Amino acid sequence: MKKETRLTHLDEKGMPKMVDVSPKNNTVRIASAHAKVSMSAEAFQLAVGKGGKKGDALGTAKIAGIMAAKKTSELIPLCHPLNIESCDIAFKPDENESSITIISTVKISGKTGVEMESLTSASVAALTVYDMLKAVDKSIEISEIYLISKEGGKSGTYKRK
To answer: Which domains are delineated in the chain?
Structure first.
């Protein structure tokens, strides 16, 4: 695969533009993103035990992450509005670290990728965990937001090393 050597969201004058995807073929496109939320042991127990002041932190974060994937084009100016066909959010609690890893996987059949949707989804899910638990721990840290993998489209498959 040939790697892109120019910024596709800039025109020949260096001004922002939306990429023209009309010539592209519809293909299945999948992207997964990662986020990590680290917190106090007390907040962690509330997160995994569904006993937070606001209720089920992870259940609420899952809904927020799915909604975020569907609304990415409203948040990131040059993203195309996409018909999200699937969004799955998984939580991997680590009691030893008092952390929760969030993995968001988004899938469509379309002309453009869903990397931004999976990244937005994981980020908003992490922010929601913070919001649900901040009454107990304002020092919660959100980190390690990155793309894990993507499939489909002209550039093919990417897997983070």
So the answer is: 27-152 (3.30.70.640)
